[in-house]
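lol forgot to send this yesterday, sorry. struct tokens for the thing we talked abt
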């Protein structure tokens, strides 16, 4: 039987999965889906390569492990000929220790649990996904693929905080996230436009989690997220950039506990906190509430600031890429960002932007602007295939 690889991306209330064929130069998608609404009213959704979709409710308030069991039961029933040879997992934080994908063992899991305080919205669920898959397939290699790995190797000035150097040596530095997405976009851009891909490129990964990454020659040079996934742009519920003195004030003057402060910054801030309406950009764009419109304006404003800063870091801009949910599907956000950066030589084609075309820059634009869907699952599958030696090159 042909080798098959499953990828899992476990979030707070959902588990995304995909099944790939591992017998080609690049993983070939067979089916992708998600179990969402964990702990409430779960649903099982799948999209089979070629267009067929299925959507059905699931009984009970499922845990992550139960959701994973349901996923594998469905795969075994729908694809009985599939030989699952490896399972790849998205893991948000790899710390200093993990700069490349790794086959998971008990020691690895113990180390990854130490990073839970650095990514409390993601890391616990990522690890629950690994544990559930290990229970379902104890003899199948599990591979952890890290969102931080792509950013390793930054220059000291891009990684350090201006704290005593001993803190940097301890690992209190800027890690960056969304690395699997940026790695995929860097690879994809080489196929779309190999000349510009080798220059200075800024990728805007804009979704419920949002960040920017500056690339040079396809390598990450700098990114807006830092030690945790809080830094940089405002996000769906996360604050983004904030004066640390304000946090000290809340701790001292408002008597906030670290737990309450964490909840404020991770769950009650960002677009949700500013708007008082929603964390979802689609809802904000449809809203007539002034605070919703102010939240959108703030989001665009911060993106422009960070693009300008990253352009300085890489010594000029050769291409701009929008990706992820908002980046791929919000003409309004893209227009607001690009129209505010005309001095960089950027100009949009309004019609192409409204259609979410692959290239949305106007003919007069000195710098091409792309809308490129990301595919973290394919990147995880590729890393998994290479790590366990399933690729033709590795055999």
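and heres what i got for the seq, position by position
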């Amino acid at each position: 039987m042909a080798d098959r690889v499953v990828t899992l991306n476990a979030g707070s209330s959902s588990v995304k999965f995909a099944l790939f064929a591992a017998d080609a130069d690049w993983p070939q998608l067979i089916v992708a889906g998600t179990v969402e609404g964990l702990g409430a009213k779960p649903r099982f959704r799948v999209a089979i390569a070629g267009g067929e979709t299925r959507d059905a409710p699931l009984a009970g308030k499922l845990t992550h492990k139960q959701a994973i069991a349901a996923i594998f039961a469905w795969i075994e029933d729908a694809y009985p000929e599939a030989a699952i040879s490896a399972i790849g997992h998205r893991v948000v934080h790899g710390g200093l220790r993990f700069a490349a994908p790794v086959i998971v063992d008990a020691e690895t899991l113990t180390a990854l649990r130490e990073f839970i305080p650095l990514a409390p919205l993601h890391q616990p669920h990522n690890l629950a996904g690994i544990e559930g898959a290990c229970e379902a397939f104890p003899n199948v290699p599990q591979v952890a693929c890290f969102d931080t790995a792509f950013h390793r190797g930054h220059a000291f000035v891009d990684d350090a905080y201006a704290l005593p150097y001993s803190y940097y040596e301890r690992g209190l530095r800027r890690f960056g996230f969304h690395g699997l997405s940026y790695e995929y976009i860097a690879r994809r851009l080489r196929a779309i436009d190999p000349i510009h891909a080798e220059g200075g490129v800024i990728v805007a990964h804009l979704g419920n989690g949002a960040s920017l990454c500056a690339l040079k020659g396809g390598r990450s040079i700098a990114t807006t997220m830092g030690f945790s996934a809080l830094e940089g742009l405002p996000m769906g519920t996360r604050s983004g950039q904030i004066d640390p003195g304000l946090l000290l004030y809340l701790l001292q003057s408002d008597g906030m506990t670290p737990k309450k402060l964490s909840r404020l910054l991770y769950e009650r801030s960002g677009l949700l906190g500013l708007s008082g309406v929603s964390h979802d950009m689609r809802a904000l764009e449809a809203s007539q509430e002034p605070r919703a419109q102010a939240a959108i304006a703030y989001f665009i404003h911060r993106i422009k600031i960070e693009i300008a800063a990253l352009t300085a870091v890489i010594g000029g801009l050769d291409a701009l890429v929008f990706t992820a949910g908002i980046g791929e599907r919000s003409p309004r956000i893209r227009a607001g960002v690009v129209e505010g950066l005309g001095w960089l030589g950027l100009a949009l084609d309004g019609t192409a932007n409204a259609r979410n075309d692959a290239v949305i820059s106007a003919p007069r634009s000195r710098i091409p602007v792309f809308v490129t869907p990301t595919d973290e699952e394919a990147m995880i599958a590729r890393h998994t295939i290479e790590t366990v030696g399933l690729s033709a090159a590795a055999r």
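Residues 35 and 67 are 6 Å apart (CA to CA). anyway ping me if u want another try
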